Amino acid sequence: LLSFLFVFLALALPGTQGKIIPRCEMVxxxxxxxxxxxxxxxxxxxxxxxxxxxxxxxRAYNNNGxxxxxxxxxxxxxxxxxxxxxxxxxxxxHISCSKLQDDNIEDDIRCAKKIAREARxxxxxxxxxxxxxxxxxxxxVRGC
Length: 144
Fold this sequence. Notes:
This protein has helices at about 1-10, 15, 25-30, 45-55, 105-120, 125-130; strands at about 60-65, 70, 75. It is mainly alpha-helical and about 140 residues long. The protein has a three-stranded antiparallel beta sheet. The longest helix has 14 residues, at about 105-120. It is globular and about 40 Å long.
């Protein structure tokens, strides 16, 4: 009974909380995945984007009415992923939106890079446009 309870709790608890990736761990992940200089942007740009889009939370979710944003990069269901609820979804990343909310962010990274590649930068993300573009972002990577 105790082992059943433990397994139940282990499966039930992570669902809502999400993994908050520590700042310097996120810097390492971005560096390891080739974000420095990608589409003319720095790791600091991406860190600022992630901070303002999801606050480093892998399970971040935002309902915009006709579409929704999912995961650490807040990837939108109208163009990039399929959540089964967004009318006319393009699903350009060929992924279920729910996959963008698990703790494995490899698929999130692939999709975010596709978005940035197609836009030739980070302008699709309002969190970046409104809080990061044209600013000194060195504090996002300092000490990492």
